[in-house]
Amino acid sequence: MINIPLSALEVAMVQTGTRAVDTLRDTAAFAQAMERLGYHRLWYAEHHHSPAIGAFPPVVLTAHAAALTSSIRLGSGGVLAPNHAPITMAEQFGTLAALHENRIDLGIGRGPGTFDEATARALRRGAGPATDEEYRGDIAATLSFLVDEVALGPLPEPWLLASSTAGAALAAELGLPIAVAHHIRPQNTLAVLERYRSAFSPSRWCEAPRVLVCVEALCAETEEEVARRGGPMAVVKAGLLKGRSETPFPTPEEAAAYPFTTEERQALEAFRAQQAVGTPGIVVHRLAQLADETGADELMLTSPVYDLHDRIRSYELIKQYIESTPTP
């Protein structure tokens, strides 16, 4: 059974046939639902110029959710360092931490948050991708500004997002908790964790290695409903396999009619096998297995499902199954 905290990642998918403002309303209702269900923390991811994901700044979503909730931890998962000045990240999340004491996280990542090169350059005022040294400097500067410049009171809890051994090495060097993107590159997870734990240096932020693993978790009462709810994201992933970044987030009905190739089906099934997808017992068993395999201190679940009610229901079923199953 699972005896570590469960958290949630909000990706803010913009559903076909809806508007971005509808997605924003859904994020508020979702935050309140995660608090009601007892999830430990809720993070928001940064994306730009995508037909499937809203371009909503994590700091703004965090502030809005914090005003609508009272206990769940909130923050970025992550805000992307190459797109922001370190002092700006420190000031924004330092202010949130002062306003909502002991509830704010600053999860920092490296990617541009877009597949479009022109958008990436616009975010960086025409500059190219950050080098390893620039990224390390941005993280170190952000942490320094939090302590030396902002000093508003309680600090946000910093995390470094990683899906490679290079990211793991940086988190270990700086003594930061690590959030591993198993939901993006599951093939890298164990190598990332081995590198992180073997090289970890204690710091003011973290005395010992601390690991959060993010996993795609999709749960429904029947396998047929699991397939229906998972169809829209499968179409988006199939588009990525073909090198298309402009795939909208379709309805379940549109997804059911999508002509997946044999190669796409095989790739999607291989990915699904490394996540936690199925009926409640199957999902919880897989989550427990992943927790054991990784030694994670916490699991963060992301459920890219078309309908808000269905998405909340997925998280609810997982919690209900865990709470109704006797501890051995």
UniProtKB/TrEMBL annotation:
Entry GO MF terms: oxidoreductase activity, acting on paired donors, with incorporation or reduction of molecular oxygen
One annotated Gene Ontology cellular component of this protein: cytosol
Domain Luciferase-like: residue ranges: 17-297
Lineage top rank: taxon: Bacteria
InterPro entries to which the protein is assigned, alphabetical: Bact_Lucif_Oxidored (IPR050766), CmoO-like (IPR019949), Luciferase-like_dom (IPR011251), Luciferase-like_sf (IPR036661)
Family, per entry: To bacterial alkanal monooxygenase alpha and beta chains.
Protein name: LLM class flavin-dependent oxidoreductase
Originating organism: Streptomyces klenkii
